[in-house]
Amino acid sequence: MPMFNRRSRFGWWACLHVLAALAISLGCASPRPRASATATSQPDYPFKTLSAAWRAARFDPTARGSAFFVATSDIHYPTGADWLPKIIDEVNAIQPRPRFFLISGDLILSASIGPGRRPDAKALAAARAEYQACGRDLARLSPAIPFKCVLGNHDTYPDEADHALFRKVWPGRPVYESVDCAGARFLLLNGGSFGTIDDEQLAWAKRQLAPVPRSQTVIVVVHQPSGGILSERGVGRAVTELLADFTGEAWMICGHAHRNAVSSIRLPHTALIRTIITTGNGTMWGSERPGYWVWCLRDGRVVARIFRRLDRGYRIDRPPIRDNARPLPQPFAGRDDLLWAMIVGLNDKPFRVKTDAIDYGDAWIKMNDLVFRLPLAQAGGKAARLAVLGELDSADPDTPIRVMVSADNATWKELTLPRAEQKIYTFDLPAELLAAKELFVRITGNVKANGLVAGMALCK
Known about the structure:
Number of helices: 7
Low-confidence stretches: 1-40
CATH topology of the largest domain: Purple Acid Phosphatase, chain A, domain 2
Number of strands: 21
CATH superfamily of the largest domain: Metallo-dependent phosphatases
Helix content: 10-25%
Structural class: alpha+beta
Order of helices and strands: HHEHEHEHEEHEHEEEEEEEEEEEEEEE
Strand content: 25-35%
CATH class of the largest domain: Alpha Beta
């Protein structure tokens, strides 16, 4: 998320969504875009009409084998009430009709106002009202244009049973589904609050792809972009597993970051083109907003992507570069000194001692007091260093994040915070602790300190 120091990301992340309700525009940090819309350059919108953009892209929506759909994201009711109707009115006027209209998550704001946050009764009532208002405006959409959506982190909350809030307002709408359009298979996935795809959904998705030829185009829609090693890693793991055998075009449409960006992720037999699309809400933080995308398909291939910025015009996005694809980073990957590792959200539960922090699914954030017990004995007496995956540099110099170690969970020795490399802080362990069977690791801070822990490892 773009413009502030990444080390303070999660503190800002929580604050931004509170301020968003007041319609304050702020910056955010996200993967750096390769396409024309960057944080430092203002893109041109040379086409006044969609028809002119189609002609320039050499796309005929009426031709046999051709189709298109419209996509936007992060509407965030209640602040989106002035913007979604404008987009819908434009979509209704497009001729021929789009195959469907898509919102890639965060229709509302209040189901979970910040990372790991659970709503109280007042917030639940607000979330229901936001869903209802969004639904009333979506009723403006032509009956000839199906509406599709995926859930974002603000549309649900941690531990919500069967997405009861969403289903109460829209009981007939699925929280994930499969769609075919112009020879491409779409998977609309639900990343929930933490950017994870649960086992039931993953098994369903595999069944949807089972009959699809390996060379066919697959387009995955999910709110969280994933791609990092600190949090929301589950989406990336699931998508790369689902597409491991595919050789055709693979695309991913995401929201969450409130800007437009394109990157390539290396898969075993193809490249996954990850596209992040900006918010359709002009009062939200972000860049190149408000707007929506027109995706153009022909004979099962994506042949053009056209961005419409409201009241500005249209631009044609560059074709993606596939030969610079990079694999998704993995926690502690490539370390030849690794003896034992614990990854939050995967295998950390048996090692938790105290978790006075916010659970963000695959990371702990805003750590007031976080204690883990690591099995030094399993390292065979070879462990000499501790590695912590996360963000431990405090956003506030008056509230530092402290890292301490102990052999008995009683007598603590504070460690000096080293400089992080690839989001990993590597500490030399005190000599007097090396012979212990267990190593207790304590990390403290407070709300101002922010911070994040996604994993720990014992190293040579």
